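step: validate -> pass
step: tokenize input -> pass
step: predict -> running
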Amino acid sequence: MPTVMSPLVTERIWALPIGAAAVKFLSYLVFRSEMGTGNLPSQQAMSAEYKVSPAAVSKLLDPLFELNVVLRTPSERSRRANSYTLHPLAARYESSEAMEEAFAQALDDMRSGRLPVLQLPEYQAVPPSQGPRKLRSVA
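step: predict -> pass
step: emit ->
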């Protein structure tokens, strides 16, 4: 079955203001998420699959929570556990139409306050460096 991924993930993941380990972990999360819903496995399951400690998973998730790329909600199964989902603008979908529909709903939900806004920087071209370029000779 073909997968349509958000342009945030396919084209801009490299520009997110997070470390390389968190970028790699986000790639794993997108791969591991449920198509269309963005639902993610439990932190214990992530820990076992990614072969790191639960504390390491927590540390990898922290910058993704700050950006609202991964959303945390209290679990219905346990008072001590949380459920995790990818923000709809970062999830993967079965078709372009499903993605467009989900994006439209997500934008409505963000405008109404039901869904947090992604905390991502504006993507602009890198400004040129100041001053003349210094040429160096190679011996």
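step: describe -> The first strand starts at residue 4 and ends at 5.
step: cleanup -> pass
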